[in-house]
C-alpha cells in the first residue's frame, strides 16, 4: 500500500487560468493550435455578425504566430466598473468574462453571437507563450501584451488613429507544450474562414501565409456577396445537381407574436443529388456544427413536410408506397445557417446544437419558403418527388429481406399493443409504458410510422428466479414476449432472434421510486430471460424529466421558454444559468411531474420520444462485467436476500445508475 499523504492540503483550488493549463483538453482541441486561433476568429466574426465589422484579416507569420484583425468596435480599454481592471485585460485573463451574456435582457453588446461562455480567448491566452492585443478605439491605439496568460506589458496608449477607425488585432504565439502538433491545420483554417465569408455576405475575409520553401507568400480572400447559394455550388464542385440550387432566408419579424425572438431564423441553400456522396454543412451563429443537431433536424422536418404536401397535392404516390423523411432528405445537399438567441451546444468545442426549441424554430421558418419554391418550380418538384419515391422503393425492397415476422403464427399479438407501420428493424421501436394514462399520452405523442406502444397495466413479476416455462403465467410478461416476437431464453442457449419485431425496445416509466421499481423488474426480465437482446443493444431506458421550469415571456426580447430537468442536479444547473442571464426569481415557476400521465403529449414527445430531442439510454452490460452484474441482480432481486440487499443498497445505492 502506498504511504502517500492524503490530508487537507492535498486538495488544490486552481485559480485564474490555471485550470486551463492543467486540463487544456477540457477547454479546447489539443491536436493542434487551430482551435485556439478559431476562438479569436469567432470573436472577430461576432463583431461582423452584429454589423460592426466588414473585414477579417488573418495572417500566419514565419515564426508560427497568427494574427487576426477586424474593423469592429474594438474591445473596450477603460476600467471595468467593478473589477477596476482594463476590460481588455479582463477578457483575456479571466474565465467567464465576456460581453455576450445579457442577450435575453436586450441590454447586451451583442444580440446574436457564436460566443457565449466568455471563455474562448482566455483559453487562447493561457495556452500561448505570448499574446499581443492592439485596439483602435475613439481615436487612440492601445496595446497590451501577455505571456503564458499573465500581463507582460500593461495596457498602454501607443499612438493615435482617425476617430472613425476602430477594431481589434490579436496576435497569438501558441505554446507548443500544450498541443500534439505545433502546426496549424491549414485546410481546417481555410474552411473556417471561407465559411465565415459565406455566412456573412458582404464581409471580406483574407488569409495571408508566409513564403514556404519554394512557395511564394500567398494571400487568399473570400467574399460571397451572394452568400450560401454560391458556396453550396462551390462545395458540390463535380456533383450533378438533380434540380437547381434553391436558397432562402427567413427570420422572425419584429412584430411577430410567435414563441421565438425577432431576428431568430435561418438562411439555407439546398439541392438534391441523384448519386454520389452528399455534402452538408450547418452553422449556428456562424459556429460550424459538424455533428449537426436540432437545427438540422428542423430543416429535415420542413423539407419532408413540404415535399410530402407536394406529392399529395399532385397525386404522385404509386400505390403501396409510403415516403418517409429519410427518403426525402437522404439525397439533400445543404448549407444551413441558423441564428438563435440562446444556443446550447454539446461542450466548449460546440460541435452539436442541442436546443430543443431550435428544431421547432427551423421547421417553422423554413417550411413556407420551401413550399413556395416547390409550387413555383413544379418540374423541379416532380423530379424531387420522383427521387424520394425511388428512395422509398429501394428502402422497401431492402426491408423485405430483413422483414420482421408479423407474429409467430402461434401467438396472436396482444390486444393492447398499438403497433407501428414500419417493419424495418433499423427504425422501428416499441415503448413499454407504465400505466394506461401514460400509455394514452404516448399514443398521441408517438410517430405512428415507427413507434409502437405497449401499456403495462398490471404488475410485472419479479422474474429473477422464475423458470422459463412459468414466465407466461404473468400476463404482462406474456404480452411483452409476444409483442417483441422472441421467446425467452437463457444466456447459454442458441438464440433465435429472427422473430424480433422491433430494433429498439424502450422502457418508459415514471421518474419516481415506483417507476424505478418497474424499470428494475423489466431490466431483470431482459437480463435473465432475454440476455441476447441486451447484448445486441436492443434494450433502452427512456428518461422522462422530473422537473419543468416555465420562464415567463418578458417583452419581445425574452420569449417564454420551457426547460426540462432530469433530476435535482440538472434543475440546479438550469437555475444557475437563469441567474447568470439575469432572470428574476419571480419570472419563472418550477413544477415537478408527478408521473408520465401528467405530461401532455407534446411534452412527452419533445422530452422522451422524438428521436432528435429525447433522452434515451442504451442498456449495456459492462465489458467483462457479466458476473458482477449477475451478482448485483442476485442481491437486488434474489429471494432470501433481504438483509444483505438493504446493506448493499445503503452502501452502493447511489451508484446504480452507472451500471445502466
Ligand atoms: N474582436 C473583438 N471585438 C470586440 N470585442 C471582443 C473581441 N474579442 C473579444 N471581445 C470581447 O471579449 C469577450 C470575451 O471573449 P471570449 O472569446 O473569451 O468569450 P466569448 O466570445 O464571450 O464566449 P466563448 O467562450 O463562447 O467564445 C467577448 O464577449 C467580447 O465582449
UniProtKB/TrEMBL annotation:
Histidine kinase/HSP90-like ATPase domain ranges (all copies): 28-178
Class in the EC hierarchy, top level: isomerase
GO biological process, one term: chromosome segregation
Enzymatic reactions: ATP-dependent breakage, passage and rejoining of double-stranded DNA
Site, Interaction with DNA: residue positions: 462, 517, 645
Summary of the function given for this chain in its UniProt record: Topoisomerase IV is essential for chromosome segregation. It relaxes supercoiled DNA. Performs the decatenation events required during the replication of a circular DNA molecule.
Quaternary structure annotation from Swiss-Prot or TrEMBL: Heterotetramer composed of ParC and ParE.
Designated name of the protein: DNA topoisomerase 4 subunit B
Amino acid at each position: 500500500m502506498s504511504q502517500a499523504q492524503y490530508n487537507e492540503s492535498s486538495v488544490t483550488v486552481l485559480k485564474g487560468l490555471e485550470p486551463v493549463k492543467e486540463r487544456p483538453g477540457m477547454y479546447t482541441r489539443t491536436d493542434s493550435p487551430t482551435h485556439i486561433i478559431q476562438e479569436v476568429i469567432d470573436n472577430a466574426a461576432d463583431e461582423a455578425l452584429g454589423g460592426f465589422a466588414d473585414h477579417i484579416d488573418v495572417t500566419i507569420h514565419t515564426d508560427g504566430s497568427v494574427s487576426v484583425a477586424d474593423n469592429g468596435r474594438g474591445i473596450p480599454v477603460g476600467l471595468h466598473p467593478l473589477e477596476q481592471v482594463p476590460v481588455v485585460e479582463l477578457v483575456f485573463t479571466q474565465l467567464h468574462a465576456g460581453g455576450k451574456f445579457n442577450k435575453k435582457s436586450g441590454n447586451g453588446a451583442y444580440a446574436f453571437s457564436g460566443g457565449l461562455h466568455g471563455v474562448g480567448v482566455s483559453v487562447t491566452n493561457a495556452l500561448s507563450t505570448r499574446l499581443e492585443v492592439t485596439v483602435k478605439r475613439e481615436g487612440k491605439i492601445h496595446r497590451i501584451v501577455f505571456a503564458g496568460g499573465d500581463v507582460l506589458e500593461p495596457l498602454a496608449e501607443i499612438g493615435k488613429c482617425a476617430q472613425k477607425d476602430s477594431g481589434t488585432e490579436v496576435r497569438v504565439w501558441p505554446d507548443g507544450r500544450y498541443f500534439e502538433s505545433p502546426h496549424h491545420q491549414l485546410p481546417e483554417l481555410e474552411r473556417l474562414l471561407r465559411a465565415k465569408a459565406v455566412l456573412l455576405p458582404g464581409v471580406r475575409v483574407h488569409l495571408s501565409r508566409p513564403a514556404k520553401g519554394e512557395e511564394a507568400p500567398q494571400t487568399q480572400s473570400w467574399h460571397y456577396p451572394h452568400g450560401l447559394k454560391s458556396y453550396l455550388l462551390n462545395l458540390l464542385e463535380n456533383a450533378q445537381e438533380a434540380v437547381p440550387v434553391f436558397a432562402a432566408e427567413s427570420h422572425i419579424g419584429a412584430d411577430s407574436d410567435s414563441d421565438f425572438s425577432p431576428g431568430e431564423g435561418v438562411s439555407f441553400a439546398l439541392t438534391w443529388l441523384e448519386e454520389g456522396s452528399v455534402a452538408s454543412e450547418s452553422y449556428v451563429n456562424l459556429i460550424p456544427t459538424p455533428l449537426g443537431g436540432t437545427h438540422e433536424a428542423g430543416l429535415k422536418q420542413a423539407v419532408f413536410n413540404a415535399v410530402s404536401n407536394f406529392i399529395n397535392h399532385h397525386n404522385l404516390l404509386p400505390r403501396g408506397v409510403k415516403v418517409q423523411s429519410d427518403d426525402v432528405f437522404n439525397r439533400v445537399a445543404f448549407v444551413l445557417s441558423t441564428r438563435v438567441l440562446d444556443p446550447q451546444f454539446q461542450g466548449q468545442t460546440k460541435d452539436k446544437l442541442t436546443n430543443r426549441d431550435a428544431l421547432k424554430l427551423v421547421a417553422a421558418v423554413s417550411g413556407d419558403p420551401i413550399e413556395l419554391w416547390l409550387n413555383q418550380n413544379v418540374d423541379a418538384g416532380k423530379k424531387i418527388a420522383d427521387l424520394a419515391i425511388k428512395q422509398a422503393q429501394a428502402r422497401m425492397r431492402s426491408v423485405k429481406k430483413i422483414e420482421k415476422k408479423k407474429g409467430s403464427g402461434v401467438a396472436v399479438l396482444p390486444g393492447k399493443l398499438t403497433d407501428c407501420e414500419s417493419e424495418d428493424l433499423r427504425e422501428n421501436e416499441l415503448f413499454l409504458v407504465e400505466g394506461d394514462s401514460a400509455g394514452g399520452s404516448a399514443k398521441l405523442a408517438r410517430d405512428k410510422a415507427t413507434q409502437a406502444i405497449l401499456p403495462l397495466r398490471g404488475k410485472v413479476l419479479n422474474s429473477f428466479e422464475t423458470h422459463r416455462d412459468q414466465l407466461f403465467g404473468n400476463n404482462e410478461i406474456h404480452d411483452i414476449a409476444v409483442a417483441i416476437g422472441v421467446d425467452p431464453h437463457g444466456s447459454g442457449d442458441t438464440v433465435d432472434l429472427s422473430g424480433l419485431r422491433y430494433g429498439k425496445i424502450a422502457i418508459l416509466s415514471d421518474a419516481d421510486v415506483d417507476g424505478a421499481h418497474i424499470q428494475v423488474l423489466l431490466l431483470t426480465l431482459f437480463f435473465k430471460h432475454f440476455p441476447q437482446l441486451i447484448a445486441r443493444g436492443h434494450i433502452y431506458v427512456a428518461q422522462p424529466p422530473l422537473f419543468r421550469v416555465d420562464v415567463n415571456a418578458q417583452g419581445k426580447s425574452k420569449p417564454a421558454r420551457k426547460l426540462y430537468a432530469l433530476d435535482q442536479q440538472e434543475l440546479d444547473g438550469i437555475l444557475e444559468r437563469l441567474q447568470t442571464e439575469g432572470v428574476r426569481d419571480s419570472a419563472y415557476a418550477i413544477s415537478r411531474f408527478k408521473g408520465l400521465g401528467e405530461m401532455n403529449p407534446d411534452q412527452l414527445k419533445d422530452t422522451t420520444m422524438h428521436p432528435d430531442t429525447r433522452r434515451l439510454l442504451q442498456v449495456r452490460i459492462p465489458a467483462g462485467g457479466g458476473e458482477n452484474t449477475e451478482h448485483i441482480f442476485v442481491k437486488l432481486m434474489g429471494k432470501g436476500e433481504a438483509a444483505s440487499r438493504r446493506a448493499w443498497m445503503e452502501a452502493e445505492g447511489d451508484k446504480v445508475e452507472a451500471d445502466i
